[in-house]
Design brief:
single chain; 5 helices; elongated
Length: 128
């Protein structure tokens, strides 16, 4: 539940992208500049997410059978659910990953970031 609230807030902040880079950065920084932000993120987001991820990975590889036989469709859904869970976990890791945590690694999204910044600057100039 707390991760859901954070996700809604995170998506709400992304809406500020429509107003340009400066306004977006001000809104995002207003949250992260708060002294309670890091603690809140750890307690409300990172710990529950880590717990849920570890439990999910354990369940994926445990492969416990059920006392009743699966139909073909139910068996397919069983595996699709596990594949989807691994995919979401990989997305979250890629989304949260910060290459500056590891010295010497290049910033992986730099070309995309440059394109994104150029698009925001173009939008800002058009609105002037």
């Amino acid at each position: 539940m707390p991760v859901g609230f954070f996700l809604v807030y995170h998506l709400y902040l992304q809406l500020y992208l429509h107003y340009g880079a400066e306004i977006y950065n001000n809104e995002v920084n207003s949250f992260y500049d708060s002294p309670l932000a890091t603690g809140a993120l750890v307690i409300v987001v990172y710990i529950p997410l880590l717990f849920h991820s570890l439990l999910g990975v354990i369940l994926v590889f445990e492969k416990k059978g059920t006392p009743f036989p699966y139909t073909y469709f139910s068996h397919l859904l069983y595996w699709l659910k596990r594949i989807r869970g691994i995919g979401v976990l990989l997305f979250i890791i890629a989304h949260v990953w910060n290459p500056s945590w590891v010295r010497g690694l290049p910033v992986l999204g730099e070309p995309i970031l440059n394109t994104f910044q150029a698009a925001l600057q173009t939008r800002k100039r058009e609105s002037d």
